Amino acid sequence: ESLYNFFLARREQIEPEARCLLECEYSIYREGIVPDWQELWEVVTNNPYNVALLSSAIYAAVGFLRGDFIDQLAEFMLTSGVDDRDDRVRRVLTKIAAAYYRMGRLRELQRLTSTFNYPQSEWKLYQAFGERKIPEALVARAQGLRGSFYRFFPVTERSDGGVALVPEKDLCGEAFNGLFYLALAEEYPGLKVACDTRLYGVLEATFPQIQFVPKTPRYRQVAEPARFSQVGPGLGNYLDDHAFDVLRRARFITIDYPRYLRKESVKAGRRQGWLKVPAATRAYWQQALGGSRLIGVSAYSTVRSRLRDIHMIGIEHWADVFSLNDCIFVNLNAAMNDVACARLARQFGIRLVNPPIDLYNDFTNLLSIMSVLDYAIVPANHMMDFAAAVGVRTIVFSPSNIMRSWAPDGSRYIFSDRVRFVFREGEDTVEDMVSRAAQMIRLDLGG
């Protein structure tokens, strides 16, 4: 806060290069800070090898949906004579590719990534996304994850600890990888999988043939340093001390996504989900929530920033969804407390239940609640993968069109036949998108 105030007080006295970098950085997380796009353009084109500056400029352009700025920068990097063999240029071009992916601009992404053929897995990832080759993109993602993991993994001899899946950093990957666990267990008897401790109970009950190793979530590193004292912050993004002790001598593998997507068990999981919640817990929530038209709602991620919010539609725009007849809405957003839920219920005149559980940490109850819903509307984060995992019909808004790469058939999620995306088409407003979603739900539920 003090550094931010220092910047505001001396903004005009700071050198243009530093000022532009700081403006871009602060604009992602602060209201009222907008980059001076003309000055920014002049500064970045005079510093085409400054990775930090250009990265911040690209992030800011995405956050403000300035596709024109990204296009100009891509054209500049392609035609200005910069040395594309320079690692710094490759890193900037990769940031531009990521920007096109985040904005759902697959034609521009394909044009950029087809111009070069960098060997790095991150470049291969965006090449595959541009061509909507999702299995190949997943392979590149897994290779990048493996390389990042091994940079921090200190054990070189791993011959007597069995076989383990390369650990995921984030809940999304942990959730969607579950689709492949039956096929993996058949190929690798005794497979070990590190998992977020919040998912441990459900995973262990669903896949008893796999040895799950619970790990403390990485966000707890600051609050619970004793659990990460051995692994340190880098490896702590993948494992805590306990999981490291169990897996330190394992042979780590990645998933052969193109081959496994053809497996019958995977096809069945896409149709109906792949996680089993406790029967008693599910029965409890069926009775507690009541009703036959239950719709779970979550508009935002619990972590907010301009870069995240462009991918979501604020719940204040959901009037057409909340006009659906005879529905009970169930809050799934950990950031919504009782007061916020009551205010929303009054605003739209709806029945909105806020389950009395810790939605951020109690995943057994959260997944059980989701399993009894008739419909869910959630963001494109781990909640989308939770919905797919329990097989609930789900709509995911994608106003930035970031999820276009993940819907090779046009609207359905690659990992689930029951999860559909609503994209921004042409001059759509967010209200237009919400209206389309409401109509889809009416057709499915009737009335």
What does the model show?
With 447 residues, the chain is an alpha/beta fold. 49% of the residues lie in helices and 9% in strands. It is built from 23 helices and 10 strands. The chain has a 6-stranded parallel sheet, with helices on both faces. α12 links the parallel β2 and β3 (211-215). α10 packs parallel to α22 (382-390) and α17 packs across α21 (363-371). The longest helix has 19 residues, at 134-152. The chain is globular and about 65 Å long. It starts with a helix and ends with a helix. The model has no long low-confidence stretch (mean pLDDT 93).
In whole angstroms, how far apart are the ends? 51 Å
Look at the structure and give the mean pLDDT. 93
Number of separate strands? 10
**Largest pleated sheet:** 6 strands, parallel
Tell me the β content: 5-15%
| Strand line-up in the sheet with most strands | 7-6-5-8-9-10
Radius of gyration in whole Å, from Cα?
A: 23 Å
In percent, how helical is the residue content? 40-55%
Question: Per the principal axes of the C-alpha atoms, what is the gross shape?
Answer: globular
Counting helices, strands and paired strands, the structural category is: alpha/beta
Q: What's the tally of helices?
A: 23
Unreliable residue runs: none
